[in-house]
Every structure is written in structure tokens, then in C-alpha cells.
């Protein structure tokens, strides 16, 4: 038996394909004690395993994860490409800000890629370009193609993907698959062939795998498009809006939550146009949502 270390690149029916640190793909299984310990190896996990042949390895241990997602079930994600449509479905700053807050909480770097911008008229295009500039100013990487799938935008995306493990997220119909197929025209063919070969003609088995896109790796399963209720406390929400967190350092009161306090640097920045009003309104909305889920103990019905 030889010991190896590597990263899981495919999970299928109890098998895990691991790319070793030396660049070799080897097939493994998880030892039974993982189940007893309630642990499941995920695509993206860095693992130690032992093997006699290239297809009979056993995972011995899983390195500590930096982060992980449930949908798709992947660990150690470097970034999420947020494919954001401006038409069909129409642009929603509420949804985009939800996604950004959720990713910030999970420690995953977002890259915002606007799609379907060619469907906008001149006024709408000018407005959305302004919105994109606001997100850039807030500290996010934003790709805003004025022509669908133009070379410069695809090159920017490829540069963002290089040397990273990425997931692609966005609403149904936002154009996630189309975008990846423009980047790698034979991607569909490749993933189709791989899944068919691995499942031996059975298409019922769920698999998650990483596909090579340039010098990066991308999950072949898109990320979720709906977001659960936020996990953080309302008072901590300020940390997950980058620009609000930045301006809050100048607030008069420590622990200012930027709602009704006097001398609030965040509210001043909104009035001065340094923070987008839509971002601040969503911050207030999310704050109320989080507060609203608290159990209330003093409203017992006293009727008999």
C-alpha cells in the first residue's frame, strides 16, 4: 500500500476520484468508519488515502474544510460566479444581495457576471451599467458585457477562473450553462461522455464532478438559486455588506446597526451617493427579516 494526498474531483455511487498532489487521477472508496463518525467526503475535499492500484484506494482522512455548500455538495470553494440576468428573469437587486450576503458568510468570493445585457434598450443599459459600477465600488468583481459573450468578457471570466475551484450560481434561465459552453465549446460533450462512461448507461445516479476550464476547475452542477434564511444574528449583518462594514468604522457609536442611531456614517454615505440606496434598503429589509424570526415569549393569548 502506498499513501497519497489529493483533492476529490468526482463523487459517484460511493466512489471518489482523487487528483493526487502529483497530478494523477485515482479511484477510491471511503472507509466504513466515516459513516460511523457521520462524515461524508465531498468533492473539493483534500484527503489522505492509501492504494495498491489506480482504482482500489481507500480514503483514510479528510483535511479540515475552509467552507462547504449543500447544493451542490462541494467543499473548499474559492469563488462563486453569480450569473445575474437583467432580462427573463428581470434583474433583482434583492436576490443578488441575498446571494452576496450568503457567500460572504460562507467565506466564498463572489464574481458577478451580468447576462442578457443585449436585450436592454439604451436607457436600461445605462441604468444597469450604473448598478454594476455601484457593486464594483462596493468591492466586488463585476463583468458587464455590453455585447453577449464578447471576447473581452469571456477572457475576464477565464482569468477569474484560473487556478481556482469555482461554482456557478444563478436563477433558472439566467444562462449558466450557455455561459460555460461559450467558454468551453465542447464542455457538454465532455461531461456527457464522462457521466455515461461512469454510470455505465444508468442515468439515475447522482454525481458531482469538477471539470477543467482553462487553468481552473468548475463544478458541473450549478449552485442553488433560492437562499435559506440568513444564519447570522441581525447585529452581525453589517459585516456581510462590504461597503457598509467599511463605512461603519466611522460611526459615532460602536455597535451601530445603521437604522435609527445618530451620527451614522453609513446613512451619511447613502445620502452622499457613496453607498447604493438599493443596497442599504436591502440591508434594512434583511435586518428586519432576521429580527422577525426571533421567538416572541410575551404574546400569550390570555383568552379563556
Task: Kindly name the structural category.
Answer: alpha/beta
Determine the N-to-C terminus distance: 73 Å
Number of strands: 13
Helical content stands at 25-40%
**SSE pattern:** EEEHEEEEEHEHEHEHHEEHHH
Please give the count of helices. Answer: 9
Rg over alpha carbons: 23 Å
Tell me what portion of residues adopts beta-strand conformation.
15-25%
Q: Let me know the average pLDDT.
A: 88
Spatial order of strands in the largest sheet: 1-2-3-5-4
Q: Describe the main β-sheet briefly.
A: 5 strands, mixed, barrel
Assign an overall shape: globular
Unreliable residue stretches: 189-205, 299-304
Q: What labels would you give this structure?
A:
9 helices; five-stranded mixed beta barrel; about 300 residues; two-stranded antiparallel ribbon; globular; disordered C terminus; 13 strands; alpha/beta
Protein architecture, described:
The protein is of the alpha/beta class. Helix content is 32%, strand content 24%. It has 9 helices and 13 strands. The chain has helices at residues 32-36, 93-106, 122-137, 151-161, 176-183, 187-199, 242-247, 265-271, 277-292, and strands at residues 2-12, 15-20, 25-30, 46-51, 57-62, 68-69, 74-75, 79-85, 109-115, 141-143, 165-169, 207-213, 216-219. The strands form 2 sheets. Strands 1-2-3-5-4 form a 5-stranded mixed beta barrel. Helix 2 (93-106) crosses helix 9. The longest helix is centred in the middle third of the chain and has 16 residues, at 122-137. The chain is globular. Mean pLDDT is 88; it is low at 189-205 and 299-304.
